[in-house]
Amino acid sequence: MDTGLTNKTVVVMASSKGIGKATALEFANEGATVILSSRGETSLREAAEEIKRLSGNEKIHYQTCDMSSSDDIAKLFREVHKQFGSVDILINNTGGPKAGGFEKVTDEDWYESFEKNLLSYIRTTRAVIPHMKENQFGRIINISSSSTKEVIDDLILSNTFRSGMVGLTKSLARELASSNILVNTIGPGRIETDRIIELDSVTAEKKGVSFEDITNYQKSLIPIGRYGQPEEFAKVVVFLASAANTYLTGQSLVIDGGLLKAL
């Protein structure tokens, strides 16, 4: 299938590792021009070099950006627009918020999570919409969490701000559809990344059991019987951004191996 991505410019946020990196690699495999971004320059450079090697695509670029910094976001997109003219596809992604229930998080945690996990997506989207409207083409994919469909215990910050992301996505999809800009949210279930290792470690410590006991239990709840791999998630992201998707917008999808019971 021709994905139509060869001449597209893609920005993937938080792409030095995990789901973001896997997504950048899938776009690179399809021949797109890919701009990676994250906070750490060393890990970002290494990720870009690895993606070039694995994909054979030399159109891989990177720039550091802290998603909680409005100045960093503005600088990133100024440089991207200067070098590449416009952004065809924006993949919004950032690390998950602090774990904890309502009584464990502070005002500072709420403010930090708002800026990092919701306002950052608003800022990046604001930066790309004018060019997308001018080109009458755009794809914006907001990577969220399975908590958009079913709340997760002890993740009050994620449950709150990821849900806000769904409202943002639906509203943008309706506002931008006439400009051929499609906007969707896609959430990972238990995809095997550093974030899942962190959450399983927190759960193991809280329950006073081994890390292996927790991971084995969690896998037993998934009908497919295992954690997903980042590349499996990334392939769905690429589909949503590809020429194969011309009508799906405003949706909130979850890639979870059948874990969630919610309709």
Structural notes for this entry:
With 263 residues, the chain is an alpha/beta fold. It folds into 2 domains: 9-190 and 230-255, Rossmann fold (3-Layer(aba) Sandwich), CATH 3.40.50; 192-227, no CATH class. 49% of the residues lie in helices and 14% in strands. The chain is built from 8 helices and 7 strands. Strands 3-2-1-4-5-6-7 form a 7-stranded parallel sheet, sandwiched between helices. Helix 4 (107-135) links the parallel strand 4 and strand 5 (138-143). It is globular, with a radius of gyration of 18 Å. The two termini are 31 Å apart. The mean pLDDT is 95.
Could you give a quick summary of the protein structure above?
With 263 residues, the chain is α/β, with parallel strands linked by helices. The protein has 8 helices and 7 strands.
CATH C-level label of the largest domain: Alpha Beta
- Distinct helical segment count: 8
Q: Count of DSSP E strands?
A: 7
Mean pLDDT, nearest integer? 95
Distance between the termini: 31 Å
Contiguous low-pLDDT stretches (5 residues minimum) are none
Q: What is the CATH third-level topology name of the largest domain?
A: Rossmann fold
- β-strand amount: 5-15%
* Radius of gyration from the alpha-carbon trace, in angstroms: 18 Å
**Which architecture name of the largest domain does CATH use?**
3-Layer(aba) Sandwich
Strand order of the largest sheet: 3-2-1-4-5-6-7
